[in-house]
Amino acid sequence: MSKQPLAKSSSPAPRSAVHPLEFLLWGFLVSVFMLFAGLTSAYMVRRADGNWLDFQLPGAFALSTVLVVVSTLSLEFARKSARRNEFPALRAYLGGTGLLGLAFLASQLYAYRQCTDQGIFLVGNPSGSFLYVLSGMHALHIAAAILAVGVMLYKAFRLDIHSKSLLGMRLLAIFWHFLTVLWLYLYAFLWWMH
Fold it and tell me: Domain 56-193 carries which CATH code?
């Protein structure tokens, strides 16, 4: 029995596999999505039960929305700069993204101040509790993303991020953009419910 060479397949080359870290990140983001889906569902169910205090949604949440959208644009400019090996621009945009993230957190704290001025506290009526929990959980995720921006900024100064090494930037962008979309959903949900 003679061995004959295998014929070359005419099918296109298979698509490259997802990096394991990206796969893990997507798994984490699915669990975060499920957490917030569960919380917003619980919000609607509890609201229908009565004993619900209606109050004005803090105006600082609108500022938070603008800040998170601008921060996601800044991160995209950072990614473009990394692909082009424009290191000063990469550092500037990453720094800007981090500062905008911190400004987002500050605007959330200001929103909580506006809530307390209205007599809305974490403990008390469930309407206030849900507002604090939903926005607070999102703020914790933004804080984690700011830490990731700090790590990437450190790597940018060490020139560890460049056109041939973009996995970290890709993972950061997926996480940050997810949090931006999540905030847009939460803000729209809370605005609609109030």
Answer: 1.20.120.80
